[in-house]
Each structure stands twice: as C-alpha cells, then as structure tokens.
Fold these 2 entries.
Entry 1:
Amino acid sequence: MHLLAPTTLRIAHAEFPERVRARFAAELRRAGSFAQLGMLGAQSCLDAAGGAGSLGVVWSSPLGALRAFRAAFDDDLRHDAPVMPFTFIAMQPHLAAALLAQRHPVSRSAHLHLAADAWPWLLRVAQGWLATCDRVLVGCVEETGDDALEHRSDWCLVQNAAAAGSVRAEPAHDTAAATSATTADWIGRIRDWRADVRAPLELAGGGDAWRFSAPD
Amino acid sequence: MNPVFVRAAALACALGPDLAAAVQRVSGTPATPARVSAAGASWPYFSIPVVADGWMQRAETIARAVGDDLRSRAALSSRDWAALPCIVGSSSHSVGAWDGGDLEALPLPLDFSRSLAAWFGARGPVMAVNTACTSGLSALDIAANLVAGGAFGDVLVLGAEFANRVTLAGFAGLELLSRTAARPCDRDRDGLVLGEALGAVLVSAAPGPWRVAALASEIDAASVTGPPPGGEAAEATMRGALGIAGWRGGAVDLVKLQAGGGPMADLAEARALRRVFAAPPQVVSLKGAIGHTLGASGPAELALLLGCLARGRVPETWGFETPDEEVGIAPAGGDARDVRRVLFNLSGFGGNVMSLALERTG
C-alpha cells in the first residue's frame, strides 16, 4: 500500500468561516462546521494528491460534531421542539461524505471514534477497502469546542499503486522498535519525515505498528 | 484473503429481550408498538421490554443478557472471548442518558462503546463506528475486512440503539415518521416507526453457519436524507454484491429489504430490485416488527433473520397488508429450508447504501 499527500490543517476558530468560503464559496454554507472542517482537509489532500478513481473515506474524531450536538441540545430539545436537520445524531459526518460524493466518486465512508493511540485501525480499514476502492482517504479531525484553540483536520490518501511523491506503507513486524504516535500527530509525523526519507519511519499505536519507507 | 463467517448472533429488540424470544414472537400475531412523546407530539415506538432504574442501568441489563446469549451460541473459549476486539455501530450512542439530565455528564461515544464491550466481557480493543442508520452494518463491514486480512480471527460486532428523545425529535423534524404504524411496501405506508435494539454478531475466520460472500457499498449523493426515486444507488449496490459474490441474480433465494414504510424510500428500493432481478426473489422486511432501529438495524435485523432461517421460516412482514401496484413487490413469509443465498439491504442518512451477500454453509 502507498500513502501520499499527508496534509495537516490547523485553523483558528475565528478564521474558519473565511477559510471555508475561500475554498468552497457558498457551496457549503448550510453544512455544519464539523462537515466543513472535514471537507476542507479532505479536499486539500485530494488537491495535493491529484489522480482519480473510486474513493473510500474513513475518518475519525474524538468528539464528533460537538458544536452541532450542543446546538441540538441547547436550542431544540430543552424546548421539546423538533431538532433541526443536520444538528441531530450523526448527520454531520454523513453530510460531509455526501458532499464529498457530489465532487468525487465516493463508494464507501465511515466515521470512527478511536482510542487516542489507535490510529493504525484507520490504515487497517483502508487496506481492506482497497479491495473494492481505488483509493482511500484517511482522516483525523477535531473540531475544538474552545474558541481559543485551533481546529485540526489531518488527511492522507492511500492506494495500492505507487505514485509521484508516495511512500510505501506496510504493517511493521516489531511494534516495540517503533516510535509511539497518536491519532492527533501520526499524519504530521509522516509529513515531516517525508522531507528526508533515507531511513524508514516506524510508528506504533494501539498495539499495532506501521512502517513507512521510500518507494522501490 | 481469509473467508469470513457469521459464527453466531444475538439480539434484544421490541420482540423480546433475547433472540429465542424474538424469533418465537415474530412468528405470532403482529403487535402494536407503544407510544412515546417527542417534539410536542405522540409517536409509535418499538421499545425493548426491559425495565431498570435509570437509562445506563437499563442499557447494561440489556447488554449483559445479549452478551450471555451470544457467548452461549459462539462456543469460544473464555480466553478467546475475553480477548475479543469489539466494533460498535450506533447513531446515538448514550445520548439517551442525557434525557432530562446533564449534557456535560454524557459519556463520549468511545467510552460508551467500551462500556458495552465490557458488559459483554470482551476486553480487546474497541472502536465506535458512526454512519447513521448503516452504522452497525458498517461495523460488520470493517470487522469482515479485518478478519479477511488476518488482523483478527474473531471480532465482536454490536449494533446499539437505545431510546432517546433527540433521535425521535430529529426524525420528527425531518417529517419522516408515521403517526400510526410501519407498513413496509404497503399501499398505505406513510413513514417510519423508530425502535431500539441491541444486535450482536460474532464475525469469524472459523467456519460458521453463514459465509459472508460480499458486502458492497455506495454513497448516494443525491440527498442526505433519502434516496432518489429511481433507486440507482440501491441497484448499483445489489449488483456490486452479486458481482463480488460471483452470483447470478437467479441464485438469490431471499432479499431482506431496507423497506421501513417510507413512501419514496420503499418505492426506490423496489424499483432497484425489479431492475436487478428479472424475476424478483422472495422478499421480507423486518421493520414492521421491530421498527427502524437505525444504527442497530444491521446486526439486529441480521440476528433476527438468521435466527428465523435457522428455525426454518422466513418471517411474515408485519405491517404489509395491501400491495402497492407502483411498488410491485409483495413481501411474504414461508418455508426457509431452500433459502441458501440471501441479499441483505440497508441504507441510511448521508446516502450510505449497503448490500450484504450471505451464503449458508451447512
């Protein structure tokens, strides 16, 4: 499996609406902020990766659509009113997948909640999906509930074939020898390492480890 | 890639607190669901017949019973059972614990999933999957991929949806609910009836009574709340599953429909079915009996269906009485001894459309 276009976005809360408008104009104005955040990162990754083909999207977040969730509780449920579309249950991740599917041939999508170090599950899932998808977008997104903190939207693309700028990604045999990484930083570590790929990078988490190396 | 099997399944739903009770009940006279209030109105709702003090205690009671039932059916050693990884599909997780309570005290989705796994006695890694109504089947999809790839030998898949006001209020806001009853494929269908369920499926590399022949998926971008009337994504998904499984249409003995009584959604699925199959096979819907259990519906309906088939019967479709000429398919129960290949359809918000192909091994 090959990984390309590791993309890490950090966006201050105050700058977020303008970033969305700048990238998508009015297209996403009715989508919630969590869906917008996922779309911003995913589209940036796809822009960097180029290429084409059927797409799977597997992404994780610790909290999910926190702001939308709170809006549903605070604005609607307390008054026993119907909850507005896109603010209840799981709408936001699926809205993002549907919006992405309006732009790209998405055939599989899943939003996951993982342990803080369980990021290798994402690559395991993506590896399985490559049996039926040409490419799989892998994302780790966190919408901050604190206006003083930055939103995070990290993405990479995996596929079976090597491509310009891609690195090989495979399960590592020795978990103990790998450097610990978290769901919040593993894509950034690959991005930083990719500037100098002379030695392979081995990252571990959740009892699993992956090895990243220059393509043959 | 390793072959993947459904080793065992268990269930709590409105038909009963365990699979045996549910299978027995679904062969009887259709029941009328209870009514609950949400968003300023009264709605029918399929509740699990379990009472406990408090929302979380009730969830634990239900989960422990389903866990014991699954464990007795799975025939795993205590050590292997304790090491099971667990993938939980849910659209609402523990949000019902908030009803009338404190939002800040609400467990995070992963924490609630860990509790569910612990109540089952599974101590391996835990993941929560959220793809709205297809959450449980997405969990099964991920589990099947992990087993096929050799990452695990067995994976516990849970579909969990417990009563809560926010989901009811959300569906009420979208005007997708019936005020009377779920009538899948019926001429008088007028919307969904929601329900709660906990479905559990043990996905395994070891041979079981059903082999997972394929699981195909599509994202229908036309609308995030329902399919376009043509049912193109459902058609593509069924064709995809047949292709992966290497089956011709005539090889399918039974299709478990997504149909839950939505006027357009049932019609779209039926149109897709009639295009895929020159002569549509026997079809059944389970949502008239247990409601639309949203993120639980994959594992819950799978457990109920396989439980019924193991007893030699395709259940009747509760709520279906009068055929709709435009829909053009008529669900029917009957003898299941010749049912060897099943297509299991599921779809949901965000355009997720899935079709699981299962083949009997014995």
Entry 2:
Amino acid sequence: MPVSRDLLSRTLRTPDIVTHFSIGKWDLLIRQARAADLLAHLAHRFRQRGLTAAIPAMACWHFDAAETLADKQHIALRWALLQLRDALAEIGSPLVVLKSSTYVTVNPSTAEEQRFNGIDILVPHGRLPLAESVLERAHWHALGLSEYDQRYRRRWMHQAAPMQHPQRAVVVNVHHAVPSDRAHAPLDAARLRHRAIAVDNFPGVHVLAVEDRVLHAATHLFHDGELSHGLRDLTDLDLLLLDAAVEADFWTRLVARASELQLGRSLFYALRYLRYFLDTPIPASVFTALHDSTPNRVTLALMDSIFTRALAPVHASCADAYTPAARLAAFGRAHWLRMPAHQLLPHLFHQAYIRTTLDNNPPKAA
Amino acid sequence: MKLLQLSPVELRQQLAGAGVWLRTGPFSLKLQSRIPSVAEGLAKLYGQFEVRNPHEAFADFHVAINPPSRLRRWLRPQVEFSFDGVQPFKPLPFDQAFPMLESGLNWCISNQAHHYLILHAAAVEKNGLAAILLAPPGSGKSTLTAGLVHAGWRLLSDELTLIDRKTGLIQALPRPIRLKNQSIDVIQQLVPDVPITRASRDTINGSIAYMRPPRESVRCQHETARPGWVISPQWVADAHTKLTPRSPAQTFMLLAQNASNYSQLGADGFHVGTTLIDQTACYDFGYSQLPGAIAAFDRLADSAIPA
C-alpha cells in the first residue's frame, strides 16, 4: 500500500520537509492542520525537531495561538478530572478515564501537544444511574439533548448524555460499555476495567492497560462514524504506540489481547492506516500475526478506498470526487455495526428529517 | 495596491473567482463571493485597504460568503459564511450578506488570534494615547466612536480591540464602524458626506449599516498605540456630559468580562489585563449629545500631552 500524499500527513511523517516549504505550502499546511485539529501538535513537533525557526514570520502566530488554546485546555482538563474524581468517590468503583483524556494523566509531556475536547470515563454498567445522579449533584449537567438522542446514546453508543459543569468548558462523557468488532454486540467493559492501572501522579485515577488503550482507541476509530478528526485520532494512537513499543514484548501482547477480546479486525485496520498516513514503525511480524483478522481482498480494497479518504483532514485540498461517498460509507458502516437494520433505518430517518425540523434555533447574531 | 484601484468589474470578477486578497490590520484575508452587494460594500468601505494579486500565496483567513444552495435562489434567498469550508453560522436572509461578512470576520479573529488579548470594545487614539471604550451593547459605543473619528481621533477599532500580549500595546484593526437603528441617522446628520452602506433591516439587532473607516486611520493601521484611558460610556437621554473616575478594580472586572479570550489566555490574560489597567486612567462617561461628548474627549487628550 502506498502512503498518503496530503501535505499534513507528509509533514507529520517527515517534519524536516518544512525547511523547503514555499509560503504557499505553509498556507496549505496551516489550513489542513487547523481542519484536522493538529496545529498545536505540529507546533510541538517543530519545537522538538528544532524546526521552529523554519516557520515564516507571518505564519508564526497561528501556531502560537493554537498552543495557547492547548495549554488552557490541558489545565482545564486536569482540574475537571480532580473534580470528577472527588465527585465520583462515592460510587464505590475506581475512576477509569478513556481515550485522549488518558494523556493528561499518564504522560503529561505527550499531553502538551494534544488538544482535548472532553473527558471520557468508564463506569460499571450497573452504576451508570448512580454515577449520573452523583455528577448532577456536583453540578455537572446533561447537555440539552432531546429525549430521542439521550435514549439513542445510552442504547447504542453505550454512553450517557454528555455532561458539563457551568463554570468550565470541559464536557464529560460517561461510558458504560465499549464497542466491539462484532455487530450489535458491545464488549463487556468489565473485561477492560479489571486490568485498569492506577496513575502514579494522579491518585485515585486509573487508565486502561496499555494494550487495551490501543485497542479501545482503534475500535473507536472504526465505530465512531463521524470521523471529523480521524487524522488527529491516528496521531494519538501513533504517539501511544511509539511509547509502548519500547517494551520488547509489547507487540506480541497487543496481538494476543486483540484476539482475546476479538478486536483483531479493528487493530488490523488501525495499524494499516497508521502506516498509510503516519508511517508508524510497526513490525511486519505484527501483520503476519494478525492474519486471521485480515479481511479478504475485495473487502480490503473497499475499506482502503473508504478509510484513506475518510481519515484524511476534512479540508477541500484533501478531498477528491469520492470523498463525500467515502465519508458517508464510513458513517453507514459504523451505524450498521452499532444497531440492527430494523432499528437503523428508522433511526436514520429520524436523524435526517425529524431532528432538523425540531432543531430550528434562531440564526446567530449578524 | 489599494482596493479602490480595482475597477468595479475587476473587483467583481476577482471576488467571484479566486477571491480578493485583502489586508485588515495585522491580518490577511482571501475573500470569495458571488454576491454583488458584497462587491458593492467592499468598494464603498474598503477602498483604502491593501489588496494584492489574487494568486498571493498566503492568507491568515480564507473566507467566503455565498448563497448556500441554488434551490433557494428565488424563494426567500439566503446567504452563508464559510471559514475555509466550515460554516460556523446558520444562513441568514440574503439582504444581510454584508453584515454577515463583517461578523464572520470578527468571529475568525476572536476564535483564532489568541496572540492578542481580544476585547469586545472600541478604541480611538489622539496624541499618541488610546481611549478604550468598554461597555455592554446598546451603550452608544459605536455612535461615540463614529463621532470621535470624524473629529480628529484615529480609529483603532470599532468592535475588537487587540492588546498585544508581549508589549501591552494596542494593535490597530480599523474596519467599518457598525451603526444600529437611530444612530444611523444621528451619524448621517453629523457627517453627511461619509459613505454609509444601505441599512440591512430586520437583523437580530434591528437595522444595521456600516460606515467607512477614515482614510488616515486605515493608512496608519500598522502603527500601534499606547493605552491611555479605559472609559465606560453610557448614552442617557438628556444627560449632561459627565466624566467620573472609576475604580480600577471594577474596571478590570469589566475588562475581563468583555475580553472574548480572557479565559483562554489563562494567567497571561490576567497579567495583560492588570498591566493595562495599571497604566491607564479609568472613567465612567455619561452623555446625550455628540458635540459635547467629543469636546470632553478632546479636553482629556489635551490634558495628557506631556509637558
């Protein structure tokens, strides 16, 4: 498989190429990075590589401003995590954080370069109502979703309505299960929870074991449907893998765990597109070991044509004539895996026609 | 090259094609639009602004303002603002194309330019010192600004005052001044020969028209200004012109509330804000008549000239 050709992923693979960039290339890089939510990440990468001086003077502020926002987000998330930890102490099960919020706790140096929108936490299925009422009492209020959306999220996305504290911008997503590779069959989250590990510098906070973190991120990528920041999520995974692969037996453990949880297919796709976009160093033996999870050639060709487009930055310069169809296909696939057809069709009808008529807020001020 | 050097046909063609490259204050824009009223608005208000070859390679903001769909061309036509392919607002009636462009540009700056502390405030300068006009909407801020800049004050900004985080100086952003409802007539009577756009009616803020920024202010848009005063104006019917000192602490609170990115800047937002308050004199300002108000500002500027 070749590698992606958009300017942003080329720059992420080999940052040194920016020293030869024309001003027009910088214009395009900034636009693609902003669309992909990777401006702050790029700024950090450039600093690490001593490339900051290569940024033309007129373009510098875009990177500075993005880093300012990322710093603020980081502080807000750490604060919110402390509040959540204290609020949830009474539900009697350890606080497990998921997805990119993990970086804030586990590896602050990686977190510097990431941007987060919210905190994802995992609670035992049976304690979801308790967790929600505890959070309500601590002034985390469910964001105004319709009854329908709330039911949908609970039943098919395995999470409660996002909750927000009135004084903070951070949004909390409370999950009670995680998606799996088997259609309509979420993975019992207890299997992930019991291997969760405590975070040294954040007493009372836990994260998934490193293989589970990779698998969960990979699964989410191919089950989320709305891949508005696909490349950013891949970048998260890339950093996680670079850190984890320091341990010699990591890849073996990862493949074994994937087959144990039956998440081999998602792992296969994630690694495939990590290579395609970011050239993540993945031993060839890993792909051999994942042989049983490899789809047949036709499926693979189809998946490639979908995900090489759908995971690219959402920017006109990264799209071709098939991109809209590819994004629609990724969206459809995620829903197909999430819910059975006899429920999917009414749901899509609701999303397309009923929601838009209900959602007629007045336009924003001119 | 200045925008007024483009012929109306060239301007319309560039705008509808690759887009016009335009500089406003410290920012460069690539603006694309097929809408004639946008071309007219630009020709009327942005004549003094620098334009470059449309193939200029770099722009801070790539924006477009166009009808969202061809289907609605005849039935209640609409207009939509895009920032590099993203639509942050819902479409508005077609008549509001120019106001939507102006507020769209403000949105771009407020959401991106975090190398400044961004105040939702007007700022004018005389004798090297700037007065920041800080007040809630409806206080007569823009009317006062429009009056002052046609009485010898330099326009730094009408809606977004940019405080450089490193130097504490004000970065000029002289764009058209937004006038609402009765103030459109007030200003037309005060300075009858200054171009003002046709009013867009029935916007969420009533009628809105834009006034051309003074030529001299646009010419000096690269010169920064030192903050001298933070003034909270309040138009009150039949009130006497009155300038009363205001507590710096309270003024700081007002400033923080009106800084759109105060919380994003974290500790630095506090630092930049308090430094600004420390070096300025803070006032409440009540007025009802523009001539008296302008005279009061002139006295303030004259009293501050270093001996």
